[in-house]
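Re: the request from the purification team.
They wanted to know what the chain is likely to look like in 3D before they choose a buffer screen. I agreed to run a prediction and write the result into the notebook, where they can find it.
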Amino acid sequence: MYLQCGKQKLDLTRPVVMGVVNVTPDSFSDGGKFLERSQAVDHAVKLIEEGAAILDIGGESTRPGAAEVSVEEELRRVVPVVEALAGRGAVISIDTSKPAVMKAAAAAGAGIINDVRALLAPAAMEAAAETGCAVCLMHMQGEPRSMQANPTYGDVVTEVKAFLLARAQSCRAAGIPAERISIDPGFGFGKNLQHNATLLRGLEAFSDTGYPLAVGLSRKSMLQKILGRPVGERLYGSLALAVMAAMKGGADRACARRGRHLRCAQDRVGNPERRRSVRSVKLARRYFGTDGVRGKVGDHPMTVDFALNLASAAARVLAPQGGTVLIGKDTRLSGYMFEAALEAGFVAAGVNAMLIGPLPTPGIAYITQAFQCSFGVVISASHNLYDDNGIKFFDATGAKLSDELEERIEAEMDRGPTTQTSRSLGRATRVDKSRTKYQEFCASTLPKGVDLTGLKVVIDCANGAAYKVGPRILADLGAEVIPIGCSPNGRNINDGCGSTAPDLLQLTVPGVRAHVGVALDGDGDRLVLVDHLGRILDGDQLLYIMAMSRKKEGTLKGPVVGTVMTNLGLEVALRRVGIDFKRAQVGDRYVLAMLREHGGVLGGETSGHILCLDKTTTGDGLVSALQVLGIMKQTGQSLAELAAGMHKFPQVMINVKVAQRFDPMTKPSVTAAVASVEKRLGDEGRVVLRASGTEPVIRVMVEGRDEGRTLALATELADVVRAAV
């Protein structure tokens, strides 16, 4: 893992420390000590010697009451220091909100832009994107000179997290990739002691953002309020808070949950003992993200040696006394390579390996449990193209591994792979024919006595994991099957086919006069359907069909759960017939958590990742497709007729051309116009504004019930954006 800081790659396979160099006369603890260039450089060199991986250079104090500094003065203070420190081993961070300073510091050798205003200043976002530097986005309520006057929050953790996610999204829309983004909740910046304590307790909530988490707690005034100690006597308190932050998420879980990068404990390195203390916090999950280990083939960690070591470590953790692992994969060319590497690692560690070949991810989870394996592994990168691949584990019940087990596996990897004696080696066997067990399971999720006789179905398996079992399941149930996207060559998975590119399916279904088309993604856990006229039905419409059927049968339990991006038409349609609907964050894990919390059985995302918890325990594209096909057969209605009761709210998208990309929500006239449109839409519409990441346009999207009114509101809003440019 690394953070791309300009041309430098910051290794983040363990927590790192940021040393702070304040080239100011009025910073709260060391103002004036390093105002001269030579003093600042000497201090920075000492920090590097003591272990600082990052040096944060600041030329303007954010202390309440501190004087403002002109661009010219800030440049005079920081640029010579950055120039002197560039190339000395540490990544240079520039602490500024001024675009001119960002550009000059980057040209002088800085690799990170650390902005307390989260790039909200005019032209700051564009400047940061232009430099190629990494960015650290901090939350601050108010302005530095008045932020501590009366900070107020309803829910500080939720509000801070929402702000940071919004700013990160704006960065990505402006052309700053995710690998160059980190976030900082901003302890002490517009927050009182209670707010800071609540943030510290709730740091784990930031773990699922997908961005590295920076935590700055060194010698904060909150320590004075807790300990009653002056600035010079807050060393041990600072260390304690840094370790607490690390344990709660600031030094391990922010990285661990997403497999991203990490910056830990924004702190001054005071002495060797202190440095060792901070470094003693172990990075919990260096490689595992929310969906296993994933990356570009040939780049760490997706290499043969890593896979072999991973298998050996997993065997020692998940089957220490020996056992059996099921290994499945999709159709990527690199799957053969990783299959062989994993097999070698498991067998050498004394675990039997069963190789089942291409099978959808939910199929691996099911067979793992059905065959009473110790654990299961699937080699896939889901809907990504063949250049990527991934490795994901399931426990003996077919569930994803807990964070704790993944942490133990990563810890074991430090030992390297092991080889048992010949007497204790495992055995490898191929069990390709066992995929019929999964086919039988999928078929069993249809109501008793229901088959698909009389239905003509086109199925597009994305040249992926379901290319064998998908058509066979449908054919065994009596459907007339026309397969497309079922001819993998190792390089064509998800390439112009499947649920992410169903164009060919849309042409084929009406062309062959089929009743319905089914499109899966590369690992078979999500789908979209196409009706007899060639129109796509997304996950929202499929949820509607299933919810209405279950309500009629009396089997619908709890609320239907969608996400914040679910079309309002689904919510309105369900509400009309008395079905409760709730929204979770985007991501199947959040949908699943909300379903479990409220006792629901049906939920999903617009993308087609659908959870039918009354049929299976995970998102399964084939099982979801069978639910809808079964409803078609039972009712005798077409897919179009079944979906007719849900009116998808029209969405109008207008691209406003601009000279250069910027965040439209930084313009007061735009924010006021958005508020006005949202008020007129009420609960039956929404507004999304974002800068394109690839061209100089601002995309204005309005969703509402009436197409004409929606178009008028979108046009009105687009005009305001044009005027604000």
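For the purification team: The longest strand covers residues 351-358.
Please add any questions underneath this entry.
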